[in-house]
Amino acid sequence: IALDAIVTRNGENGFKTLGEIGRDLYLDKQQINRIMKKRYNMTFKQKQIFSRVEYAKNILYQTDKPIDTIAYEIGYTNITSFYKNFKKIAGCTPNEFRKKVRATDKK
Questions:
Q1: pTM for this prediction
Q2: What number of other Cβ atoms are within 10 A of residue 16's Cβ?
């Protein structure tokens, strides 16, 4: 489904809004949310947050970029929101995640 490709590529190409995706797919916002709920069991916004955190995890693992820079790159303007969402999804802060994955690599 085209929606899968758009949601997955958003991390690399910038995160699109629900309206932009709707225009791309010729669907209204409610239709997209119904599809998202059925396919992923989450709304577009929830999936967008999840995708951003997953993308941030890759950047944290692969680079030494500062966390606030990563948050800005993936679309956050409020660092507190980024930390809150990251911890909710990953179970730890971005800094803890970076330390954990790097410690695992050294073993």
A1: 0.81
A2: 18
